[in-house]
Amino acid sequence: MYGDRNHSRWSLSYCPRVFDRHTQVTVGHMVNVSPYGMMLVSKRPILPYRNYHLAAQFCVDDGVRINISLDAHSVWNQRDINPELYDTGFQFIHADPGSKMRILSLINDLRE
């Protein structure tokens, strides 16, 4: 189905909402992340082998919300341990150095 990843991912202490940047529709929630990719849990299956224009919404100090744009390629999809949910692995594409730095910073702040 999919190959082994080359980079570790970290589980997050809370699961940020991830949405389609064009439609603003929630796609799922980020459950783990690395500077190179992420895994989402969603209510509907996400088609693999496609590019998506996403954004992740993070709550920071004092309830302020920030969005980070994430262009990502879906690599795999499978049912979650909860049969009502789906897991999807994404690889980030076209990630600029600024986005990678923000992701690393958020990983340090939010990982379990």
Salient structural properties:
112 residues, mainly beta, Thrombin, subunit H, six-stranded antiparallel beta barrel
Describe, in plain words, how this protein is organized in 3D.
The chain has 1 helix and 7 strands, in the order E-E-E-E-E-E-E-H. The protein has 112 residues and is mainly beta. The protein has one domain (14-110): Thrombin, subunit H (Beta Barrel), CATH 2.40.10. Strands 2-3-4-7-6-5 form a 6-stranded antiparallel beta barrel. Strand 2 (17-20) and strand 3 form a beta hairpin. It is globular and about 35 Å long. It starts with 9 loop residues before the first strand and ends with a helix. The mean pLDDT is 83.
Superfamily (CATH H level) name: predicted glycosyltransferase like domains
Mean pLDDT: 83
Q: Find the structural class using helix and strand composition.
A: mainly beta
Low-confidence stretches: none
Please report the distance between the alpha carbons of the first and last residues.
28 Å
What is the CATH class?
Mainly Beta
